[in-house]
Amino acid sequence: MTRFVLKRLAGAALVLLALSVLVYGLFYLAPGDPARLACGERCNPQQIAQVREQLGLNESVFAQYLHFLQGVFAGRDHSTGTSVVHCDAPCLGLSYQSDQQVTLLVLERLPATASLALGAMAVWLLVGVGTGLLSALRRGGATERVLTVLTLAGTGTPVFILGLLLLMAVCAHLQWLPFPSYVPLGEDPEQWAWNMLLPWITLGFFESAKYARLTRSSTLETLAEDHIRTFRAYGVGERSVVTRHALRGAVPPVIAISAVDLGSMFGGAVLTESLFGIPGLGKTLIDGVRQIDLPVVVGVVMVMGTAVVLANVLADLLYAAADRRVVLT
Q1: Which of 140, 197, 198, 237 has the greatest number of C-beta atoms within 10 Å?
Q2: Which compartments is it annotated to reside in (predicted)?
């Protein structure tokens, strides 16, 4: 297992390196001048040139990329005007707009995205796995047909439409909850939970449809295997057959995909964060792209890429732990 993890981590490092090169390339192909945006609309050409020199934009693309890699692995001093800001490793650079360390900016926004992703995962596992299991056990009946319709509705409803419907129904019409306004967990845990409830339901319900279909198909496949029929022939109770044997075969793929989806949520919840005003990584990335703030864009993309890569490694490990027939090589 150690050899497998080391090999996957080495591959992950190459993937992240290629991702950083791609982001840098796309940035320089995009229209706009980050020096002009950082300086402001009233700056004259001389002031813009001075800002470009302060930001290091007068250097070649290759030199700027090497500075970025140097900051990631060893840290470096970044000069801005007359001040020098020390950036310890790992350092993702300084924002062109706020002159803030991107590492600190990411760490500031990461808890909001992490809380959204973990809460949504709890929803999609409870709703998706429960719905899929019930649908498989009630195969051919009215319950299965109703659950199938709900699953198809969840699959075909865009996340922003579902979020808007929940806001209008729960907050505007029924007035069960106030309109969400993000509150950090450390400030007020109760208000944090109430304000995150609708985002969790929105993102979790959207993903739960996939898990309902996956759980249903895996459970039906497991229930059709020979050893399940043998247990039933020996008089083993249906509840024991389902909970102790059928679920054991249906759970591994759900665990593996959950780990991958959890990693993807760190970059795939942009619409949910924007709709509910959650100051997470997705919103930070959109703001960085709009302002042509290369250090912020690269830093957030690298963090998101790292989350996805590590989630894939974790998914393989969890799958092997849940299914002893899988051998890691």
Answers
A1: 198
A2: Cell membrane
Structure tokens at 151: 């699953």
Residues 296 and 102: beta-carbon distance below 8 Å: yes
CA-to-CA distance for 301 and 294, rounded, in angstroms?
10
Residue bearing tokens 């290759």: 62
Exposure of 10 by Cβ count < 10 A (0-12 exposed, 13-18 middle, 19+ buried)?
exposed
pLDDT at 81: 40
In angstroms, the CA 229 to CA 249 distance is: 14
Read off φ and ψ for residue 230, nearest 5 degrees.
-65, -45
Task: List Cβ<8 Å contacts ≥24 apart for 102-110.
Answer: 102/295, 102/296, 102/298, 102/299, 102/300, 103/299, 105/284, 105/296, 105/299, 106/281, 106/284, 106/299, 106/300, 106/303, 109/279, 109/280, 109/281, 109/283, 109/284, 110/280, 110/281, 110/303
DSSP annotation of 187: T
85 has which bridge partners? 78
The secondary structure of residue 230, as a DSSP letter, is H
The two structure tokens encoding residue 261: 């989806």
Report the chain (329 residues): mean pLDDT per 10 consecutive residues. Answer: 79 83 74 69 78 74 74 54 47 76 86 90 88 82 79 75 88 86 87 90 85 85 81 79 74 81 78 86 84 81 84 80 68
Q: What local confidence, expressed as pLDDT, does residue 38 receive?
A: 67
Instruction: Take residue 35 and report the two structure tokens written for it.
Output: 């020096």
Q: Give the pTM.
A: 0.79
- Round to whole Å and give the CA distance between 87 and 170: 46
Question: Which residues make beta-bridge pairs with 76?
Answer: 87
Strand, coil or helix: 154? helix
Q: Phi then psi for 85, rounded to 5 degrees?
A: -105, 120
**DSSP state, 24?**
H
Q: Phi and psi dihedrals of 175, rounded to 5? A: 55, 40
Those residues with Cβ within 8 angstroms of residue 241's Cβ, 6 or more apart along the chain or in another chain: 228, 231, 232
